[in-house]
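Let's practice the habit of predicting before peeking. Look at the sequence and jot down your guess about where helices and strands might fall. Then scroll down.
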Amino acid sequence: MRRRLLGKQLRDYSIITWFFERVFWFLHQLSPSRVAGGSRVAHVNSEAFRQNPKAATAIRSRRKELYILTWFAIEMLLLVFAELEAGWPLWIPRVLATIRILDIFQSSVNLSVFDQLRTDERIVISSAVRTLVLSFLNYLELLICFGIVYVTMLEQLAGAETWLDAIYFSVVTQLTIGYGDIRPVGTARFVSAMQGLVAVAFTILILGRIVSVLPKIESVMKHSPDD
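Done guessing? Here is the structure:
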């Protein structure tokens, strides 16, 4: 009922907003992160949260951190196997890296933009500082995941020879430096363009979070209404 009401309200206000909210809701439904504590909306609406918000949030936070560390371990293994060409299809690390990229992006967008629209309750997080730290780790994960994709298509990076070259190309692409010593060709051009777009959007979301936790700056000057 709440979701139908939300859909009607968003459509009345903005069809574009409604469309993107549906897209990111769908991406969340497909995300493996649902097994690690579920969505923030379900969390704040849960009975456990109503009875003891701090304890319930702490448990969910630990699950999320374990989930992120597990992905870090998977990403390191994917880099190793992709470089060693360990006899398995290269589409496997590509798919897993793509799943994680989408997972990171949808989670960040939902947290920063859409989650609060989906419930009458106030969305809470365990710690603003912790959220910023995890955002930085997610940014590093994006570097690694795109690097994994580049390792699997090394022949489409003119000037690249090793997996380190692929990671280096991922770094300069995500930071929008682009020295030109390594150049994407073929499908890699599309991947590098997508990395640039995702990196810019993700950076904007992180900056928004940083601004939200900065202390408010107040003036000590006293002005009269006529000043």
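How did you do? Residues 2-213 form one domain.
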